[in-house]
Amino acid sequence: MADEVKRKTPFGLSLVFPRKARYHGITMDQREFDVIIIGAGASGLFCAAECARRGRRVLVLDHAVKPAQKVLISGGGRSNFTNLNVSAEHYRCGNPHFVRSALARFTPRQVLDLVQGRGIAYYEKEAGQIFCRKSSREIVDLLESDCRRTGVLVLTGLSIESVRKESSFIVVTSNGPFSASSLVIATGGMSYPNLGASDMGYRLAKQFGLRIVPPRPALVPFLFSHAERKTFHQCAGISIDTNVTSGNRSFRGNILFTHKGLSGPAILQASLYWEQKTAITIDLLPGLDIAEAFREKRQSRMLIGNLLGTLLPKRFVQAWLDETLSTRPIVECSNKDLQALAHDLQHWLIVPAGTEGFKTAEVTAGGVDTDELSSKTMEAKKAPGLYVIGEVMDVTGELGGYNLHWAWASGYAAGQYA
């Protein structure tokens, strides 16, 4: 691409950016700011406008050509931008109490008031999930217009070459150095690498002595073992309403069979609480006492496979049931066989071979350890003036608008102090 250049940075990142960075806002002769925010995503832009409302001179930097690309694709293009049921219980974090302060200070009601005030129509889909009625572009436009209105300078399409702390923070970019008394890391996680996601935020945090909880893909499909893939390859495309348990958390919802493993809302939720080499448990018939159903049919000559075919997709039953058992009349089955079958149907144990990774993960779990940060201000305890917000920290929400809400809540919290 003639108008682009690839450059290696000291952080080990290979970034592609235009020969000329894009500028939004005031003129480029200004190099000193009060606040520099690295990352023009949801949390970064929201924090920037909050800082600027306090009279702070704010600069936002991002290597992407266009800001808030993850917001644009969120919610299938309609942005599930909050959830009416936001609470600490819907977040996974090393310190489960860390999120309470920020969530209490920026609530779903405040988000709805904000979008309503801008004429953005929204609707509740299910379980408190709030989506744009038209397009996620409206949320991005809101963020950008707030930054323009408050005088925030947003520079995109440039790379961060180094960051150091002297009397102030010095950020050296492909367009030269900038300085500020406060620095906000809002770089996001490692999901969606095709949009330019990287580990730069973690490297920056480490540079300033902050501990990192190892990042891993979350809200991500599971992979079958070789044996399970062979057994269930014919089930690709099948969806089943289930209850999936991972660790001590259970989620009711659909699972979807893929060519590689399992996806669907209940699986994505379970992946947030899954640990490597542990089993998940799937209840294939939630709300049904299948053991009682077997007892009612105890004298029937109906085949086991035919009975289950009335309750579950037939292709799945063919793959899941042993062929000998599938073609046996219920009356000829022993009580022990029926009890074991009932148990397995509602306690199907699977040990995933892994996940599909960051390429298909909705979010990144892990990140900057919250014990390193103030839950009130998001400021690093051992690096005054350094703030961490959004997905780059070890706070991960469940599916359903919780992660975008954390972007608003953490960005708002830091925006009052940075």
Largest sheet: 8 strands, mixed
Helix content: 25-40%
Please give the radius of gyration in angstroms. Answer: 25 Å
Number of helices: 14
Shape: elongated
Relative strand content: 25-35%
Q: Tell me the quaternary state.
A: single chain
Distance between the termini: 38 Å
Number of strands: 24
* Class per helix and strand makeup: alpha+beta
Break the fold down into its secondary structure elements and pairings.
Elements: E1 4-8, E2 14-18, E3 22-24, E4 32-38, H1 42-53, E5 58-62, H2 69-73, E6 80-83, E7 91-93, H3 99-105, H4 108-117, E8 122-124, E9 129-132, H5 137-150, E10 153-156, E11 160-165, E12 169-173, E13 176-185, H6 200-207, E14 212-218, E15 222-223, H7 226-232, E16 239-246, E17 249-257, E18 261-263, H8 265-271, E19 280-283, H9 290-296, H10 304-309, H11 314-320, H12 323-326, H13 335-346, E20 348-350, E21 354-355, E22 363-368, E23 386-388, E24 395-397, H14 402-415
Parallel strand pairs: 4-5, 4-13, 5-10, 13-23
Antiparallel strand pairs: 1-2, 3-10, 6-9, 7-24, 8-9, 11-12, 12-13, 14-22, 15-18, 15-21, 16-17, 16-19, 17-18, 19-20
Describe the structure.
This protein has 418 residues and is of the alpha+beta class. 29% of the residues lie in helices and 27% in strands. It is built from 14 helices and 24 strands. It has helices spanning 42-53, 69-73, 99-105, 108-117, 137-150, 200-207, 226-232, 265-271, 290-296, 304-309, 314-320, 323-326, 335-346, 402-415, and strands at residues 4-8, 14-18, 22-24, 32-38, 58-62, 80-83, 91-93, 122-124, 129-132, 153-156, 160-165, 169-173, 176-185, 212-218, 222-223, 239-246, 249-257, 261-263, 280-283, 348-350, 354-355, 363-368, 386-388, 395-397. The strands form six sheets. Strands 3, 4, 5, 10, 11, 12, 13 and 23 form an eight-stranded mixed beta sheet that branches. Strand 1 and strand 2 form a beta hairpin. Helix 1 runs parallel beside helix 5 (137-150), helix 1 (42-53) packs parallel to helix 14 and helix 3 packs across helix 14 (402-415). It starts with a strand and ends with a helix. Residues 1-27 have low confidence and may be disordered.
